[in-house]
Design brief:
Blueprint lengths: L2 H4 L5 H46 L13 H4 L17 H15 L6 H8 L3 H4 L6 H13 L13 H18 L15 H12 L6 H32 L3 H18 L5 H4 L10 H22 L2
Helix pairs in contact: 4-5, 4-7, 7-9, 8-10, 8-13, 10-13
Length: 306
């Protein structure tokens, strides 16, 4: 190779490509810096609004759950928001609805004030007139979903055992639809008005049962349902990661497990006995069986007076 080749200057096309790459890198860096600055601004705004709320309303961990939307206006202007956003036509219910829509489609991690503002076509800061912090938003989202648990009074059976099954089925249906709520990272205290309505309805069906016992029974029923939904959600996630449905996943897994059991049948005789059986189960049938056994055990406990 000659010295001229080694010292060859980049062609015009190569220089243009290099400049374009530099412009793109600069654009990405500016966007990241802008997003970081907006995040810092939002965090500072939320901290200021939370402190303001604590002064005027007390340091309640449940934020806006029991506050009417116009209460904020009567209690004094929120810092940094004077003259902005109230005339935009926004309301708290609309913000919560958009947040729920995002959570259902993409998971709760995708929910942010900036994302909601973009969906609504408004400035991010205008949302803080209605929902001061992300924790407030999560509380409102949870309470909105809790309202879906309440059945119509004419839907409930008179017998507490059947009524408890009805409420448990509704709970499974709602939590399956809003499966992000059973993720431990997004659990919230359920002390809003809609949650109270659900608890009130649940307690009313337990007439004649001592209050402490009734509350414990309702808690156990919730534990069963939420645990069932959590396990279903985890299984769906595993199948999605593998790019399969449940039956496809089991068909792929079966030869591997059966091979292991054939080699180690003496170590796992009970498991080896299942070789050749259908590994898939009807989850609705399993849920109903567990619910039936659970409520029957509760009824025996009530009858025994234990």
């Amino acid at each position: 190779m000659s010295s001229d080749d080694r010292r060859r200057r980049p062609s015009r096309e190569e220089r243009e490509l290099a400049r374009e790459a530099g412009r793109e890198a600069s654009k990405v860096a500016r966007q990241k810096a802008k997003e970081a600055a907006e995040s810092i601004k939002e965090e500072a705004m939320e901290a200021a609004l939370a402190a303001h709320r604590d002064v005027h309303h007390g340091a309640s961990p449940f934020g806006l759950l029991w506050e009417r939307e116009d209460d904020g206006a009567r209690s004094g202007a929120r810092p940094g928001l004077r003259g902005r956003g109230r005339g935009s036509g926004l309301n708290r219910a609309e913000i919560v609805a958009v947040a729920l829509r995002i959570a259902e489609a993409e998971g709760p991690e995708a929910v942010s004030m900036r994302r909601i503002a973009k969906e609504l076509g408004v400035g991010t800061m205008s949302l803080y007139h209605h929902v001061p912090t992300k924790d407030d938003l999560l509380d409102l989202m949870h309470d909105q979903v809790m309202g879906e648990l309440v059945l119509g009074a004419d839907e409930l059976a008179d017998d507490w055992q059947e009524a408890l099954k009805q409420i448990s089925r509704r709970t499974r249906e709602v939590y399956t639809r809003h499966s992000w709520m059973v993720s431990g990272a997004w659990e919230r205290p359920q002390f809003g008005p809609r949650a109270f309505a659900h608890i009130e309805q649940s307690l009313q069906i337990m007439k004649g049962i001592p209050q402490d016992q009734a509350m414990m029974m309702l808690g156990v029923a919730d534990d069963y349902v939420i645990g069932f939904v959590s396990r279903e959600a985890a299984a769906r996630s595993a199948y999605e990661r593998a790019g399969m449905d449940e039956r496809q996943f089991m068909e792929e897994l079966r030869p591997y497990v059966e091979g292991l059991l054939a080699e180690r049948a003496s170590e796992f005789p009970a498991l080896a006995a299942f070789v050749g059986n259908d590994w898939t189960q009807n989850t609705d049938e399993r849920f109903e069986a567990g619910l039936r056994w659970l409520v029957a055990g509760m009824a025996m406990d009530v009858q025994s007076g234990a």
